[in-house]
Design a protein that fits this description.
By secondary structure, chain A is mainly alpha-helical. In chain A, about 45% of the residues lie in helices and about 0% in strands. The N terminus of chain B is likely disordered. Chain B has a single domain, classed as Cytochrome C Oxidase, Chain A, CATH 1.20.210.10. The chains are: A mainly alpha (about 300), B mainly alpha (about 450). The complex binds protoporphyrin IX containing FE (HEM) (2 copies).
Chain lengths: ~300, ~450
């Protein structure tokens, strides 16, 4: 019965199958593509394009996807990927793993200085990161790479970058006017209600231990282990990470600290942590900063509102 | 199965050269895997050495296992069984040896260019155009050698292993050109989402039209030989062969279920991914019924053990793969180490172990000398078996942790500390596979050269 299986039958039969399938699943969708640009689409600049080459050459694509799904929560989760986002990508860099985060909407998430410090060594801004360091690329390449990263999200990214640039100018001016002015300026930008709120929970050894762990996992690369703002990221960041010790006696409430950690300070490298830290964790790390570095905490003082159901 | 005419086979230099190629790159590929795995637990280890960093080592690892280790290993067996089954000699030993030399040069150039950052940036299609061309030439040479051998055969009936070997090399040469967009040498890519569709059509064909058929060819040859049972059913092998070609080629889009490609393509890929159960089970029923009552023989023979373990892993990788193509499952498994676990289960545990079995089966025959050490081959079997099983378990656990955490709103960064210990375990288990690879290299080199054993 296997007599029909001649070399010709095998070779031409299988090639025929391949041709038919290729026609249906590759050629057909190729000729019937409608690649209208999406509403955020724009072309990349020459600098961004050169950054993309570096991105591809160094295998960023093995750890980073560029495509948001309906089930995602991370940043950019509001913008589900559309075919029209990719119309000038050759090759397309969708990625098949998220060892790192999705980068399709990364542009404007951070200011440039955060990215540069992060590329020099990711542990500087993200102590638990497992992303490799890219200092060896040299500053020029790091800058084009940063330009590319800041373009991800296209028109959406441009809007966010405009916001970053606007506030960068303001935080830099405030910083240059001296610590007293800077701290006042920062506090004034925290909405009124938050400024009068003390940390509602009492200081406990367990709470401080939790705060310490969170500080180590999220903050120490910038603010340093002793809170003086001289962490390893400091040389690349401007305005530099805040030195917490200068906050003493300047009426910095638990609410201000909470708000700044939750919301970040756009324009400066200070990121927002609302996606990564739940409420208790922000209070805990805030109180840790207050107790250990500012040496002054308003934890568990009035006004407190209705007592929390659990009190240690 | 073929009638043994007792015709002497010459020393098969081509098969020897491909075995050595496979053993050598197996050792180097696992070394690269260890480096890549090392970075994931200690990202600053060997920091700032550009050509050694994770993003360059990873494609080197993957290209080496595919084109350095598994493919040449499976081809080594084919260079033996195709002439043997046709009751003839290989068309040209010389061509085969030159082919193996060119193959090694190609792989070496591939490693150097990738580590220097010359890449087309497409997973499984990273190699730049000149290397692509070399690969195509290599496959063309294999095709010439095998087809000419088949044409000069004295046995009119073609056994199923030959079908698979011929189809694999012919189809791979074709999809390789397509998938690497060789008509566009500068980028080697299409533009936009179309590029992803083509890429995964091709990427999946590397597993489905290269590794799988070559592995099945080896299994169809080695299992009846080792058990001395006739193949259970020739009709089943016919169904399995054409079924595999029809179904496997459709399913590349299951890599793209969560990105904006046309829905009808996704539907085809999901349906056919589930339908993959048919050709796979047809093959497995055929092979396992052939083994029936002879498991003892399998276990007495190291080649039989490797190949038989490969068929069992084929079962698992298929069941797992069909599940992963279901959208509800893929919500959890996509983008994380579950897929890496599946990849090692498929390429290492199924295709890799089958390749090793094929080589151990043919080595004494192609070299005319007994295997240097059965003990070392046995040791390698256990190291690779435990290593593959361990990888699958550990990477699946990591994948479940990552996938479920993300689905419930945890950020990637927050999950990193939770998975670190599993990355450490992966390196620990990796040492088993790494030692297995070097032991195998030693054993194979000693079998062919410096072999004190009597002439067989
Ligand atoms: C036979 C039935 C199989 C089915 C239905 C199947 C299905 C799948 C699916 C759905 C994925 C995509 C996972 C994702 O990205 O979420 C995948 C990935 C993969 N499969 Fe399979 N698979 C099968 C067999 C195999 C075999 C036999 C091999 C190896 C020889 C293999 C190697 C791979 C590899 C290496 C990947 C990873 C691709 C990447 O880098 O993203 N698969 N498979
Ligand atoms: C010492 C043993 C090995 C170690 C430590 C190792 C480690 C790794 C690592 C770290 C990755 C990258 C995963 C990621 O990006 O998260 C990888 C990918 C891969 N490895 Fe290995 N590996 C080893 C052996 C092998 C062998 C022997 C094979 C095949 C025969 C293999 C096939 C693959 C494949 C196909 C991928 C791509 C997976 C994907 O894209 O999803 N590995 N390996």
């Amino acid at each position: 019965m296997s007599q029909e299986m001649t070399p010709k039958a095998i070779i031409f039969g299988s090639l025929l199958i391949l041709a038919a399938v290729t026609f249906v699943v590759v050629l057909w969708p190729y000729t019937h593509r409608h690649t209208a640009p999406s509403e955020i689409y724009r072309q990349r600049t020459a600098l961004e394009e050169s950054g993309r080459k570096i991105y591809l050459a160094n295998g960023c694509v093995y750890c980073h996807s560029q495509s948001i799904r309906t089930i995602d929560w991370g940043h950019g989760a509001e913008r589900i990927a559309q075919a029209g986002d990719y119309i000038s990508d050759e090759p397309v860099a969708l990625g098949s793993a998220r060892t790192g985060v999705d980068l399709s909407q990364e542009g404007g998430e951070h200011p440039d200085d955060w990215h540069i410090a992060h590329f020099i060594n990711p542990r500087y801004t993200r102590p638990n990161s497992i992303m490799p360091p890219f200092e060896w690329l040299g500053m020029e390449n790091i800058k084009s790479l940063t330009a590319y990263i800041q373009s991800l999200g296209m028109k959406g990214a441009d809007k966010r970058m405009q916001r970053q640039r606007h506030w960068k100018e303001q935080v830099a001016t405030a910083y240059e006017a001296g610590p007293a002015h800077n701290i006042r300026w920062l506090a004034e930008h925290v909405p009124e209600g938050w400024r009068n709120i003390p940390n509602p929970y009492p200081t406990t050894p367990a709470g401080l231990a939790r705060g310490h762990k969170i500080y180590q996992d999220f903050c120490l690369g910038c603010h340093s282990p002793i809170g003086d703002g001289m962490g390893p990221a400091q040389p690349w960041i401007y305005p530099p990470p805040l030195n917490f010790t200068i906050l003493k006696g300047r009426e910095i409430s638990g609410g201000i600290i909470y708000y700044q950690i939750m919301n970040g300070i756009t324009g400066s490298a200070m990121p927002y942590f609302k996606k990564e830290l739940e409420s208790e964790k922000i209070w805990d790390v805030g109180n840790y900063v207050a107790e250990y570095f500012i040496n002054q905490s308003d934890a568990n003082t009035e006004p407190k509102g209705i007592d929390a159901s659990y009190e240690p | 199965m073929e009638i043994d005419t007792g015709m002497e086979q010459e020393i098969n230099k081509a098969a020897i050269a491909f075995s050595l190629t496979s053993a050598l790159w197996f050792a180097l590929a696992t070394s690269m895997g260890m480096v890549a795995a090392g970075y994931l637990i200690a990202p600053d280890f060997m920091a700032n050495i550009g050509w050694l960093q994770f993003g360059r080592i990873r494609p080197i690892h993957v290209n080496l296992v595919l084109f350095g280790f598994v493919t040449p290993g499976l081809l080594a067996a084919a260079f033996y069984y195709v002439p043997k089954l046709g009751r003839t000699q290989l068309f040209s030993q010389k061509l085969g040896v030159y082919n193996a030399i060119l193959w090694n040069i190609t792989i070496a150039i591939g490693v150097v260019t990738l580590s220097a950052g010359y890449t087309q940036g497409r997973e499984y299609a990273e190699l730049i155009w000149p290397v692509d061309m070399l690969i195509v030439i290599n496959f063309a040479l294999v095709i010439v050698n095998l087809v000419m051998t088949v044409r000069s055969r004295k046995e009119p009936i073609l056994y199923v292993s030959i079908w698979y070997a011929l189809a694999a090399v012919v189809l791979t040469a074709t999809t390789y050109c397509l998938g690497n967009v060789i008509w566009k040498p500068s980028s080697g890519a299409l533009v936009g989402i179309q590029d992803a569709i083509l890429l995964w059509f091709y990427g999946h064909n590397i597993f489905g039209l290269l590794l799988t058929p070559l592995s099945l060819g080896v299994a169809y040859y080695v299992i009846p030989k080792v058990t001395r049972n006739p193949l259970y059913s020739h009709s089943l092998s016919l169904v399995g062969f054409w079924g595999l070609l029809v179904v496997y080629t459709h399913i590349g889009t299951h890599h793209l279920l969560q990105v904006p490609v046309p829905t009808w393509l996704k539907v085809i890929s999901i349906v056919d991914s589930v339908a993959m159960v048919i050709p796979v089970m047809v093959f497995l029923i055929n092979i396992w019924y052939t083994v029936k009552g002879k498991v003892g023989e399998i276990h007495a023979d190291v080649a039989g053990k490797f190949v038989f373990a490969g068929t069992i892993f084929y079962f698992f990788v298929n069941i797992q793969g069909s599940m992963m193509a279901l959208p509800q499952v893929q919500r959890v498994t996509h983008f994380n180490n579950w897929v890496v676990g599946h990849a090692h289960l498929g390429v290492l545990a199924f295709a890799g172990m089958t390749a090793l079995g094929g080589m151990y089966y043919v080595l004494p025959k192609i070299s005319g000398k007994p295997l240097y050490s059965h003990f070392l081959a046995d040791l390698q079997y256990w190291l690779v078996l435990i290593g593959s099983g361990g990888f699958t378990v550990v990477l699946t656990i990591v994948g479940l942790i990552q996938g479920n955490a993300w689905l419930n709103g945890e950020t990637v960064y927050r999950v990193l500390p939770a998975i670190q210990i599993y990355y450490v375990l992966r390196v620990a288990i990796g040492f088993l596979i790494l030692s297995g690879a070097y032991i195998g290299l030693y054993n194979i080199v000693r079998t062919i050269f410096f072999n004190p054993g009597a002439k067989a």
